[in-house]
Amino acid sequence: MKTSQYSGFFKLSVDDRMKEVAEFTGISEEEQAILQDANSLDMDKADHMIENVIGRFSFPLGVAINFIINGKEMVVPMVSEEPSVIAACSNAAKMARAGGGFTAHSLGTVMISQIQLLGIAAPNAAKSIILEHKEEIIRRCNEKDPTLVKFGGGVRDVEVRIIDSIVGKMVIVHLLVDTLDAMGANAVNTMAEAVAPYLEEITGGTAELRILSNLADHRLVTARATFKKEEIGGEEVVDKIINAYAFAAADPYRAATNNKGIMNGIIPVVLATGNDTRAIESGAHSYAARSGRYTSLTTWEKDENGDLIGMIEMPMAVGLVGGATKIHPAAGVVVKMLGVKTAAELAEIIAAVGLSNNMAALKALATEGVQRGHMSLHARNIANTIGAKGEIADKIVQAMVSEKKVNAEYAKELLEKFSS
Ligand code: MEV
Asked: I need a surface site. Which of 49, 171, 318, 322 has the fewest CB within 10 A?
């Protein structure tokens, strides 16, 4: 494969798909073997990753194709158990090509670490005392991570909030820490624990919780794409997609499902790169609720030409150093395939994939519904399972879908019929 666009990619065998993707991404035979070996994470490594290990558990790894992100042709590795997701976002990525693909931009790699101070009689005075000692707080924190500081990271700022709670007012200190290419949980938690006694000393309060916030709103990423109206079925479809978006923007029940569809694209890339999927989920949903009402992570508008423009903005706390990204051999190969050198670049790709999944879902829902597409994929899986190949498999899939009889029994009947 010379570009990320490849028609009929899904019809290739697993090995042929791997050959094409290896040629495109430049991964070696050894790296291909790592991706194809369900045991590439050896038992010893697994046993050191989490507690009470009794085995390992594997999921399929696929690639989304057709992507252009920031001008670069890309295939995107994704780990998922859900059929249709990879097909859907590949399809949306194809529709985005005429508009130049996706433009994505990371707005920084700053994490928030929170320190909760209790027992403070005059919170406003405490706030000003903390801010007066900002330089010393920053010095004490940075001292804990000289490597991060050496590479240009470290604490950028200190903020203080006073919040009302059922147990009275609390003073909450935020350390804003640039963790660069690390997700940074360990670094910022260490800093919060280290500086807490000093905050107690200067305020007279008691430091209780000292932990990062997953509402990583200083680590946002945006991605946008223009879908030319003629690529997606005309201006009527553009309007229908905007109506579908308007529903999610106005209603939390719909927004939850809309955002689930976005996470269908995001989480498989986060997982394939060995990053913390729960951190991303919690960041996404808390950001979607930041106004006090849960809403869509994307917006959809029509431009002056009648084309559709989608935009996503959300926290994306992913890293390339530390954690499972470095330990899991397959995650290392996935990062190589993506060709990313920084966590910011990885975040940009992930956001583009999330936006494309949202586009695919909204287009399907606003036009024919999702079931026909699901049924075709389900039918193809069944045809594969019963050993049908090539044109015969295509005919079986077509017959099952058009007659709305998608099951293995009928597939076997059709196989006999078309083979004779
Ligand atoms: C299913 O996994 C995802 C969708 O429900 C997303 C959506 O409704 O936008 C199709």
From this structure: 49
The question of whether 44 is a catalytic residue gets the answer no
Q: Determine contact, residues 171/126, Cβ cutoff 8 Å.
A: yes
- Residue-wise pLDDT for 239-261, tens only, equals 999 999 999 999 999 999 999 99
Q: Measured in angstroms, how far is the CA atom of residue 343 from the centroid of ligand 1?
A: 28
Q: Give yes or no for residue 258 CB within 6 A of ligand 1.
A: yes
Q: Assess if residue 1 is contained within a domain.
A: no
Q: Angle formed by the axes of helices 134-143 and 185-203, to 10°? A: 140
Handedness of CA 369, 375, 381, 384 (dihedral sign): negative
| C-alpha torsion 245→251→252→257, nearest 10 | -40
Q: Is residue 4 part of a domain?
A: no
Structural domain of 131: 110-213
Instruction: Please give the model's pTM, rounded to 2 decimal places.
Output: 0.92
Q: Which of 240, 241, 257 should be mutated for ligand 1, with most atoms under 8 A from CB?
A: 257
Domain boundary among 190, 213, 236: 213
pLDDT digits (tens, 9 = 90+) for 389-400: 989 999 999 999
Assign residue 306 a region (left: φ > 0; alpha: ψ between -120 and 50; beta: otherwise).
Answer: left
**pLDDT one-digit tens code per residue, 81-107:** 999 999 999 999 999 999 999 999 999
Cβ–ligand 1 contact at 365 (below 6 Å): yes
Q: What is the mean pLDDT of residues 72-87?
A: 96
Pocket test for ligand 1, best of 78, 240, 260 (most atoms within 8 A of CB): 260
Quick check: 370 pLDDT over 80? no
